Amino acid sequence: MNLKYDLLVFLILCIHIIGCQGQKADGIENRNLPNIVLIVADDMGYGDPGCYNPESKIPTPNMDELSKWGVRYTDAHAAASVCTPARYGILTGRYCWRSRLKKGVLWSGYDDPLIPLERETLASLLKNHGYKTGVVGKWHLGMNFLQKDQISFVNPKDYHFSGLNGTRDVDFSAPIYNGPNYLGFDYSFVSAAGHNMEPHCFIENDFALGIPDIWREAKVPLWQGVSASEVHEGWMVDGWDDRQVGPDLTESAMNFITTAHTENPDEPFFLYFPTVSPHRPCTPPDFIKGKSQAGERGDMVAEFDWSVGEIMKTLARLGIEDNTILIVTSDNGATRVSDDGKDYGHKSCGDLRGYKGGLYEGGHRVPFIVSWPNQLQAGTVEDRLVCQTDFYTTFSKIVGEPVKNGSGEDSYDFLFTAKDDREARNSLIMQNYGGDFAIRQGDWKLLLNGNQTVGKNELYDLKNDPNESVNLVLDNPKKINELTSLLTRQKRKGYSNEILIAGDNNQFSKFKAP
Questions:
Q1: Based on the domain organization, do 240 and 374 belong to the same domain?
Q2: Looking at the structure, do residues 354 and 410 belong to the same domain, yes or no?
Q3: What is the H or E stretch that residue 131 is in?
Q4: Distance CA 121, CA 185 (A)
Q5: Using alpha carbons only, what angle is made at residue 311 by residues 305 and 313, rounded to the nearest 5 degrees?
Q6: pTM here?
Q7: Is there a contact between 279 and 196 (Cβ–Cβ < 8 Å)?
Q8: Which residues contact 73 (CB under 8 A, 6 or more apart)?
Q9: Residue 225 and residue 178 in one domain
Q10: Cα–Cα distance between 228 and 281 in angstroms, integer?
Q11: Residue in 230, 226, 155 with CA at minimum distance from that of residue 197
């Protein structure tokens, strides 16, 4: 290793240390703070779980049971209808279109990190309050790999549709920089961008597990009869098995919970568990295959439900389920069909219009179940508007941290909607794959679709038309102007939660200690 390389590593580590300053526990009493487990599916739709769709062709007994213990939200939304911007919103409490990513997603594990080191995340927020923090699953927010024999990071591809142009010049023996461990996570066990994108390997605490030295071809199955839909070419580690990614991640998630609690039973932990299921390629493990009546995609939803059940069993085995907030949701809406092009008569987004990637409700209205025994009324159905950016302010309230300027700009406390019968937010900005916007206020929703001509836009009254079937745009010019002005104002200001930005943090209810 040469002097230039040593200098680069030293400088990056210095940046990491500076970025992590203030993230250590501040000595406050943590015994009454709840553990938090946030499980996020990848492309699970509103119509997939049985508790949302009685006609679902997929068995989801664990999510169904969890909904009986907690609160099932029926008007909850991802921050975007595709995964990278939605995950950015989950971790930062900020709409992703305020970042450099104005549309689309990141297209490999090698992309430059989307979240700056100085921005507070759910992990750094909770770490400041004594939480042991971990992420297990699909990251897909960028991290930096070093090139071979150089002092610069690899260049990610910028074209994705064919799955080609994989990156070859990667030093997998070197540390990986600016990933989860730089953003407040004490522990990370992740795939850089999912099981369909390069590199095809696991990464644990900034190091690849094994040296990926097998070149995987795009969309070529590793085994006969196993899907390779949407698989990109790139380096793969020996022994990689798409069918085992979900079970391996689930085992790692269970191990994190067990270790965090047994080593420090008086300290809370936070686990962010973004699974790869049911995203393509749909490759359910053998013990799940055939469980659903909705093809391999349905089996992948069943796999996700199994993962939820394993986490529930782990919490129960450790005796900590009563002091754990368990949240189950999805990063965006579903695809319509399985990898073979069939829908099997299953409505992955229920009766909602649209699917993943679009502005219609099916693209971003998602399952959202929250269990917190002794705090939230079991079996509650909550119909108030919620967005996944709201995790940031909600967790801030739980730990008693006032929301600061420059953090959680688009985040509200959603838990008091269930506790105090009050509305958290009455507006929401939604974004599709192409970077177009929709604005929601109350029951009204305006879809702009990239057009500035009113007659080509769409306006719906979701209260009377939840399926978005009657376009009212020509009959309501005043409402069009109101919603357009609201969207413009929130975009220009750089935030949407004006109450929190103004510093009024006393409006929210306090939680009693469990």
A1: yes
A2: yes
A3: none
A4: 9
A5: 105
A6: 0.92
A7: yes
A8: 368, 369, 370, 382, 383, 384, 386, 414
A9: yes
A10: 5
A11: 230
**105 vs 253: CA distance, rounded Å:** 25
What pLDDT was estimated at residue 9?
46
User: For residues 388 and 411, is the Cβ–Cβ distance under 8 A?
Assistant: no
Residue 504 lies in a domain: no
Give the span between the Cα atoms of 310 and 507, in whole angstroms.
37
Whether residue 386 sits in one domain with residue 439: no
Give the up-direction half-sphere exposure of residue 432: CA atoms within 13 A in the CB hemisphere: 19
Long-range contacts of 282-289 (CB under 8 A, 24+ apart): 282/227, 282/229, 282/338, 282/339, 283/195, 283/226, 283/227, 283/242, 283/243, 283/245, 284/243, 284/246, 285/243, 285/244, 285/246, 285/247, 286/243
Residue 503 lies in a domain: no
Residues 464, 345, single domain; the answer is no
Listing from the earlier edge strand, what are the strands of the sheet with 458-461? 427-431, 437-441, 444-447, 458-461
Do 416 and 465 share a domain, yes or no?
no
User: Domain range spanning residue 472?
Assistant: 428-496
Smallest CA-to-CA distance from 268 within 135, 413, 133 is with 133
What pLDDT does residue 149 have?
Answer: 83
Give yes or no for a contact between 386 and 72, defined as CB atoms under 8 angstroms apart.
no
In this structure, are 489 and 343 located in the same domain?
A: no
Give the per-residue SS3 of 464-482. Answer: CCCCCCCCCHHHCHHHHHH
Rounded (5°) CA angle 393-395-400: 90
Within a domain: residue 226?
yes
- Token couple for 167: 């990156």
Neighbour tally for 25: CB within 10 Å? 14
Q: How many CB atoms lie within 10 A of CB 34?
A: 23
Residues of the chain under the 50 pLDDT cut? 1-11, 13-29, 451-454, 501-514
Cα separation, 215 vs 233, in Å, equals 7
| Gyration radius (Cα) of the chain, Å | 22
Task: Look at residue 175 and tell me if it is in a domain.
Answer: yes
Amino acid identity of residue 193, one-letter, is: A
CA dist., res. 223 & res. 18, Å (int) = 46
**Number of folded domains that form the chain:** 2
Q: Which residues contact 107 (CB under 8 A, 6 or more apart)?
A: 156, 157, 158, 159, 160, 193, 197, 232
d(CA 420, CA 423): 9
Side-chain-side CA neighbours of 442 within 13 Å: the count stands at: 9
Residues 461 and 388 in one domain: no
Task: Judge residue 21's burial from the number of C-beta atoms within 10 Å of its C-beta, 0-12 exposed, 13-18 middle, 19 or more buried.
Answer: exposed
Separation between Cα atoms, residue 5 and residue 216, nearest integer Å? 29
| Boundary of a domain, candidates 425, 444, 473 | 425
The rounded distance, in Å, linking the Cα atoms of 361 and 445 is 10
